[in-house]
Amino acid sequence: MLGNFVYANPTKLYFGDEPKNNLIEAISGFGKKVLLTYGGGSIKRNGIYDDVTAALTEAGKEVVELSGVMPNPTVEKVEEGRRIARENNVDIILAVGGGSTIDYAKAVSVSAWYDGDAWERFWLHHEDPKPGERIIPVGAVLTMAGTGSEMNGGSVITNHATKLKIGKVFGEEVMPKFAILNPKYTFSLPHRQMVAGIFDTMSHILEQYLSGDDDSTSDYLAEGLMRSVISSSRVAVKDPENYEARSNLMWSATWALNTLIGEGKTQDWMVHMIGQAIGAYTDATHGMTLSGISVAYYRYIMRYGTTRFARFAEVVWGIDSKGKTEAQLAAEGIDALEAWIKEIGAASEITSLGVTEDMLEGIARASFILKGGYKKLTREEIVEILKASL
Ligand code: NZQ
Ligand code: ZN
Question: Which residue ranges form the domains of the chain, and what is each CATH number?
Fold first, then answer.
């Protein structure tokens, strides 16, 4: 561990299959008026909406509803939420959904009482709210495991007009005050969304793990989480209602991106930068954009971080190192990752996500280039990685 850091996480988690009582307790300390926000209606079909509204009634809350949050929420939707939150002077925003709805609630939280252009300020310029500035507290009922949004400050918003999808990572004041994690709520997810969430979790861990070469506690934690994700994914794809597997996947997703395993170390995040640019062009499912390019990306950069990639092969995939060079081991680790992507049914290329050859230059231009990985990419290299992912 080489870095200096301050670690705090204000989100109170309520884990398990008693969501109604947990929500009543969690939300009781906040004001009376709740902005209940959710997506396209899955919560009405699977009963989660009934649980939540019953809990809010029992807790004596007055509810204003804001539905229709789309996967990959847009600036226009944030504008609508900002207006409704302000007009109703709500005390708390309760997001019921996956990463899109929770990210959206954070966006509305910081934008509602800001008079200027919120997109420009928070996402384009990456500013934080000033101390004392009015922001609305957010609580979450998680229905899809993957993004970690339930316990972090991330808020990813898409601007289709400018073809930009940008993630702003806010501080403690914007992170959810509480999150209700009931693994049973994820049972109704379509197979494709479950798998997308599983790969998203894996990718969050890889982005933090495949960087740096010091001996770091964070990396040992990452290895344990990856082994758990791989093991539980194999159970869940065959038996989606396996509570043990789904609870492990939910818990792993939360820890994969609640800042813990990134502490004290450099991090990569280029798969996410390219994946987000693909998302801006195609509106494709987030986790699938990541699985679609990961293999080509890692095959390209593993030569610059061979020792860590060899460790990944040995520790995470259990590949026998006997008689092999580090480069051989590293390559076998990526082969194992590729085989697992296919095994669970995540996207292993980007053509099926709507990417066409004429988009590649634009996607490369829309990818923010970061330098925390083993190799700082050029635009030309991003185009090559995208070509190899078609
Ligand atoms: O909208 P509804 O009808 O609810 O349907 C959703 C949506 O269509 C459905 N769904 C969710 N829970 C369900 C369910 N369907 C049946 N049963 C359930 N229990 O699943 C679909 C996808 O939901 P969404 O919230 O979009 O998925 P996810 O959790 O993957 O979130 C994706 C968004 O999060 C951002 C992504 O970029 C993307 O915009 N990210 C946020 C991060 C963060 N806050 O730190 C980090 C991530 O890397 C990611 O970028
Ligand atoms: Zn992600």
Answer: 12-185 (3.40.50.1970), 191-389 (1.20.1090.10)
